[in-house]
Amino acid sequence: MFSLGIVGAGQFAGQFVKLWRLHPGVGDIVVTDLVPERAARLAAEYDLAGTQPSFQAMLESDVDAVAIFTQRWTHGPLVVQALRAGKHVYSSVPMAVTEGEIVDIIEAVRETGLTYMMGETSYYNPATVYTRDQVAKGAFGRLFYAEGDYVHDMDLGFYDAYRYSGGDNWKATASYPPLLYPTHSIGGVLGAWQTYATSVSAIGVVDDRGDGVFDTEISQFGNDFSNATALFEVAGGGAFRINEFRRVGYPSYVRESRFRFFGTEASFEQLVNVCLWQDKHSVEDVTEHLEPKRTLSPDDPSLEHVSPALRDAFTSGSAPVHDRSRLPKEFANVSNGHEGSHHFLADDFVTAVNSGSLPPVNAWVAARYTLPGIVAHESALKGGTRLEIPDFGEAP
Fold first, then answer.
1. Predicted model pTM
2. Which residues contact 296 (CB under 8 A, 6 or more apart)?
3. Do 157 and 297 fall within a single domain?
4. Could you tell me the CATH number of the domain that includes residue 324?
5. For the chain, which terminus, N or C, has the lower number of CB atoms within 10 Å?
């Protein structure tokens, strides 16, 4: 059993605090946030052991591990600081926003021997779980092409989320480049297909809404791409394409990530409300097998501080394809999220820390889910120039 510090008490953190508070492998939990009132509220809501006044105070305390739920462009340096301070680390996505930050994390994990895990929800997306099983059985034949889409329109939750976290200057950060948040598309593809990206060519679409978001003069990131598409070459032959869309007519509250896989013997395709397994002779509708059952109403009082447009992401249960036999019994009747992934991610981290084992999305895997997007953004800025993607190999 280990003690845990929560870093960042925003809309997402509470969904995992709830699970770790119930998990028999976790002891005391404390929380810190740049807005002390948010930390105090989270501690009171889940009866936590207390709060810390700052991230530095958290690192100087005797907590064994930290879980980082801060703004997406801040993760890399915070992770390294925590590892160097002797803490195991769970990080929300993305892993980092530069290649250098990724290298620093891998080096810190290697040198300290501590657990690092990135909480990528698509690893347990029902489509990814299903296709991972099919790949393992060889059912695709030779897998040679895949697609992953993260289609989440700004109007469906992101404006509210950035206002909540960004304050008066929220438009400067709401322009975050889509390809620097690539893991919900890339992670679902590579979470099933046991390969990695070696090169990329990408195209960005310059935004034309004119509302001050994705405006290079306002953007903290100098970014005016609201949509982007990238085509990757993979090791061993083949390719996959991802879309990262923030202006798109699509009901992301129903399904924000979707996937397609094509092999020489069979294929899988997913739309908003249908999933199909196909071979050369037939088509099988596997939708019901991959459909999470809702466990909580979007109007539940526990979601009071979650933007209404984001509540669907936090109320799904598990799908039939999910094997829940490994999960603690305490999770049995507790709300899940992101198509059934939260329970598994929370348990992965606890298991890794308590057993000293590698979590599925360890630092080396997280790098393969994150760095391709960073290089793809660079390619898009260069008009689609094909660029090589460094790879750091398998976890030792």
1. 0.95
2. 302, 303, 314, 315, 335
3. yes
4. 3.30.360.10
5. C
Do 262 and 114 sit in the same domain of this protein? Answer: no
Q: Are residues 157 and 18 in the same domain?
A: no
Sheet strands side by side (includes 116-118): 50-51, 26-32, 2-7, 65-68, 88-91, 116-118
Same domain, 206 and 281: yes
The residue from 92, 121, 150 where one domain ends is: 121
The CATH number that applies at residue 64 is 3.40.50.720
Per residue in 345-360, pLDDT (tens digit) is: 999 999 999 999 999 9
Residues 291 and 262 in one domain: yes
Chosen domain end from 86, 121, 156: 121
Total number of domains constituting the chain: 2
Residue with tokens 């699509």: 250
Distance CA 114, CA 362 (A): 11
Average pLDDT of the chain, as a whole number: 95
* 221 in any annotated domain: yes
Beta bridge partners of 205: 227
Instruction: Work out the percent of the chain whose per-residue pLDDT is above 70.
Output: 94
- Report the chain's terminal Cα–Cα distance, integer Å: 25
**Whole-angstrom Cα distance, residue 40 to residue 55?**
15
Q: How far apart are CA 93 and CA 126, in angstroms?
A: 19
Residue 90 shares a structural domain with residue 195: no
For residue 16, the enclosing domain spans 2-121
* CA 361 – CA 188 distance, rounded (Å): 12
Q: 249 falls in which pLDDT band (50, 70, 90)?
A: very high
Considering the domain architecture, whether residues 82 and 130 belong to the same structural domain is answered as: no
